[in-house]
C-alpha cells in the first residue's frame, strides 16, 4: 500500500475531499487530504471598495459592459452580492456575455442564476491564453467595454493584453488575497503527518507559490501546477522537484493526476 498526502492549498471553502482513503482499494493506494490554505480571501462590502471600484460598480449597474469576466468563485459571489445589494436580480445580465474562469466559477454563477461560458466550452485551455482565444473576446473593439471582476492584483495579463489592443477594459477588485497569518503555524502542525510520505502540493496561482516558498519547506514534494505559466515558475523555483501539469482545478481532474502519478510510481518500483 502506497500512502500519500495531498495538501489542499486552496482557500478554505474550496476544499478537495477524495472520500475515504481517496482511491479505490483495488489500486492499492491510500491518500490523506490535509488543509493548508496558502491564501486567505478578504471580501469588500460596497462601501469598502476604492473610489474607482465604486465608479466601475455603478457602470456595471447601468448595463455599461458588453462582456464580464469573472475570475473565481469568490468573484462570482461578490458579483451576485453587489447586484442583490442594489436590488438587481440575475436577469439583469441576460443580455451581457459572462465569461467564467474555471468550471467551479461557471457552476457557481449558474447556481446563482447567471448563465456563463468558459474557454473549455470552446475547446480552449482554461488560462489567460484560452480567455483571449474566445471569439467574444477576440472580437472586442475599442468601442466595446469589458469588465474583469477579480481580486486585487489578479488577471493583469488579460487586462494588459486587451488594453494594448485598445479595448476599454475596467476592473472591479472585489476582494483581496492575503497570506494567512497562521500559515507557518498550520504547516508546523502538518509536518509530522507528511514525514516519509509522498506529498502532493497544489499550486494554483503565483501568489500561492510565493506564500509556499516563504515556508522554506523541506522534503521531496510533488507539485501540481495549474497551467503552463505556473508550471514554468514552479520549475524555476524547484528545478529538481517532480512537477505535474494540471489544466483545471476540478476535483476529478486533480484526483486523476494524483492517481496516475502514484500508479506510475508503484509500477516503476514494483518488485
Topology of this structure?
Blueprint (H helix, E strand, L loop, with lengths): L1 E7 L20 E7 L4 E4 L7 H11 L5 E4 L2 H13 L11 E4 L2 H9 L16 H6 L1 H4 L6 E7 L4 H9 L3 E11 L4 H12 L3 E6 L2 H8 L7 E6 H11 L4 E5 L4 H18 L3
Parallel strand pairs: 1-2, 1-8, 4-5, 4-6, 6-7, 8-9, 9-10
Antiparallel strand pairs: 3-7
Structure description:
With 271 residues, the protein is α/β, with parallel strands linked by helices. The chain is built from ten helices and ten strands. A five-stranded parallel beta sheet has the order 2-1-8-9-10, sandwiched between helices. α2 packs parallel to α3. The relative contact order is 0.17.
What fraction, in percent, of the residue positions are helical?
Answer: 25-40%
Radius of gyration: 20 Å
Structural class: alpha/beta
Low-confidence stretches: 19-26
* Main sheet summary: 5 strands, parallel
Spatial strand order of the main sheet: 2-1-8-9-10
Order of helices and strands: EEEHEHEHHHEHEHEHEHEH
| End-to-end distance | 13 Å
User: β content, as a range?
Assistant: 15-25%
